[in-house]
Amino acid sequence: MAAASRRRAGGAVAVAALLGVYLGSSNSRLALVELKAMDRKLELHRFMGSWYVLAHIPVKLVNEHLAHNAVETYSWDEKKQRIGVHYRFNEKALDGRINDSYQRGWVWNKDTNAEWRVSPKLPLLGYFFSYCGLKLPYIIVDCASDYSSAIVGYPSRTYLWILSRKPAVSDAEYQKLIEKSKELGYDEAKIRKVPQIPDAQIFEVPSS
């Protein structure tokens, strides 16, 4: 397989121009109650590491709707008390052009650790928006007790990421995650399954 099809431990969901994502989703699905993070306490250190994106409602501003081999990785910075996020995928094909995105995240709800705020690294601007206090909500709405799968959402339900520690799961496991997303108010018709290489290799996360 071409080197471009291999993935580094990559991170973070929901990477896009900060204002573009916010403004593009603030008025959607008003009929539904705003999506909330799960109440159960998340063990932050267990959530860190690499996750395969099995399915999503993508951020089109960063070509996520073209994603193959999507991998997200989270790493905790104890000194700075923040989360480093890297998101990597191949565009259009399993060996397509590699798309890398970076974010920084902060735990917003320290009682549960399931609600974060994130800020993307933008071309030329870097992490400018984070210094201005402009950060996007990032909510973990479900996580398996063994941390084998998780669902990350957005308050308006404009975006969704279904994550797994494995690049491929059984049809039954996949459908269970889809059904859980539907219970949370998501429209199944909008959910895109991400093509993945079943035996994909994950590499070290590049510095953000």
From TrEMBL:
* Lipocalin/cytosolic fatty-acid binding domain residues: 42-196
Q: Which SUPFAM superfamilies would you find in this protein's record?
A: Lipocalins (SSF50814)
* Alphabetical list of Pfam families matching this protein: Lipocalin_2
- InterPro entries from the entry? Calycin, Lipocalin_Blc-like_dom, Lipocln_cytosolic_FA-bd_dom
Gene Ontology BP term (one): response to stress
Gene3D superfamilies membership = 2.40.128.20
Q: Kindly provide the name given to this protein in its UniProt entry.
A: TIL protein
The encoding gene is TIL
